[in-house]
Design a protein that fits this description.
Layout lengths: L4 H27 L3 H32 L6 H24 L2
Helix pairs in contact: 2-3
Length: 98
């Protein structure tokens, strides 16, 4: 039997919709991150946060060592500055990799 024109049009639209959904599912599956991918992502975030803090601590300690007497003024200030810069780095990294 011959299907009528509206039935064929409906079947064609249905087939196109199913084909489109299958392609979307295949693309989503191939773009999904693995455990290793998540590990690298979190390691990058940790590095972006920790490096400025540690650099600030070392630089502050060196500057405080050049001053007479006991002082932690530079160390604390540069650690706080390192936390701020690290947080900005992490925020920008996450915004870029959404």
């Amino acid at each position: 039997m011959n299907a009528s024109a509206p039935e064929r049009a409906h079947r064609d639209r249905l087939e196109a919709a199913v084909r489109h959904d299958c392609e979307r599912l295949e693309n989503a599956e191939s773009e999904r991150r693995t455990v290793l991918g998540y590990t690298v992502f979190l390691g990058s975030i940790a590095g972006l946060l920790v490096v400025p803090v540690v650099a600030g601590a070392y630089l502050g300690n060196w500057l405080d060592g050049m001053a007479e007497g006991y002082s932690v003024r530079w160390t604390v200030s540069l650690i706080v500055l390192g936390v701020v810069f690290g947080a900005i780095n992490v925020y920008r990294f996450i915004q870029e990799h959404k």
